Amino acid sequence: MSPEYKCDTFYYENVKQKEIPKRMQHLLDEIRRRTSKRKLDNDHFSYLNWSVEIHSHNTFPSSSGLASSASAYSSIAIGLSTLFEDTEDGTITPTCSYLARIGSGSAIRSLYGGFVQWYHKDPALSECMYPAEQWPELRIVILVFNSKTKPISSTDAMKRTTQTSSLYKERLKTIDEKIEQLNLAIKKRDFENFSNIVMRDSNQFHAVCMDTYPPVMYLNDQSKHFIQLVHEYNNASKITKVAYTFDAGPNPFCFILQQHLDEFLDLIKYFYPAQTQHRFHDQIKTMKLNRIPTMCAETVNNIDNIIKNIKQPIQSGKLEQVILTKIGTGPKIVVQKTDDTLATSSL
């Protein structure tokens, strides 16, 4: 933010955009409106007329059902509130929460680290129920089958669903009970119940999408193949080793314990082999992990018995990327204010 900037500008992956996205502009207007109401002396108040320059870099594909808006708008919200409200440590203020909600529902759930609950009765309120340390063995594997923009935005799909789906109304009746059960499973680190709740809820969510008229079809053939693969893998293993959940897109988020991670990656390597000119190892991107899990040799001898009991066909060249991560912290301020500009960077 600087008096030298002629207007607000937005850069996405170092490319200047023709205009600022509507939600981002709404967010900027709101923080300025709220700040102008505060009784500040003239020296502080003058910067309200300064323009801002926002740079966004994201390691996730955008608009493909991976909730990239979560990291983007939670970081922007905490960055702007730090600048305008003059907080020094990235404190989550009520204004910050409200700004994040303007960005997206995913963003308000991403202001805090750990396991976060978003309260539907107060759309601008979220709370960390358990810190990331509550379940240190829990890992997340994200499989990117399709990084292209999804056919309908989450916002537009939700409007259509609320207007046309009768299943949606039934779904709402059980949400509170599911949240209570899920919180208990996390508290007890009960992976079996945790997985059962997560997968059933994902299935129901997409059933509601199909009940919407015209239907909203986010899952593709690879999504459906993977759902069957997970159930056959768990059945062959005699225990639940992995759980899937799909947001508004075809790409699954997989929950798995560290002890089963290497085996699961071998399974993915077997059923979703890369094209011949690439190696599976090259498709893996780690986030928040200290190392890339040890990859076995080209053979999959350690899971041969499991593979024999899985009937799903091999899907060559269908997997674009594998992202490995775990439960982490919320946005953090990494650059503070400088002498010539009011600058902040949140991650």
Automatic annotation (TrEMBL):
GO terms for biological process: isopentenyl diphosphate biosynthetic process, mevalonate pathway; sterol biosynthetic process. Pfam families: MDD_C, MVD-like_N. It comes from the Eukaryota. Its EC number is 4.1.1.33. Residues 140-334 form the Mvd1 C-terminal domain. Keywords: ATP-binding, Lipid biosynthesis, Lipid metabolism, Lyase, Nucleotide-binding, Steroid biosynthesis, Steroid metabolism, Sterol biosynthesis, Sterol metabolism. GO terms for cellular component: cytosol. One of its GO terms (molecular function) is ATP binding. It catalyses: (R)-5-diphosphomevalonate + ATP = isopentenyl diphosphate + ADP + phosphate + CO2. Residues 2-121 form the Diphosphomevalonate decarboxylase-like N-terminal domain. Catalyzes the ATP dependent decarboxylation of (R)-5-diphosphomevalonate to form isopentenyl diphosphate (IPP). Functions in the mevalonate (MVA) pathway leading to isopentenyl diphosphate (IPP), a key precursor for the biosynthesis of isoprenoids and sterol synthesis. Belongs to the diphosphomevalonate decarboxylase family. This is Diphosphomevalonate decarboxylase. It comes from Didymodactylos carnosus.
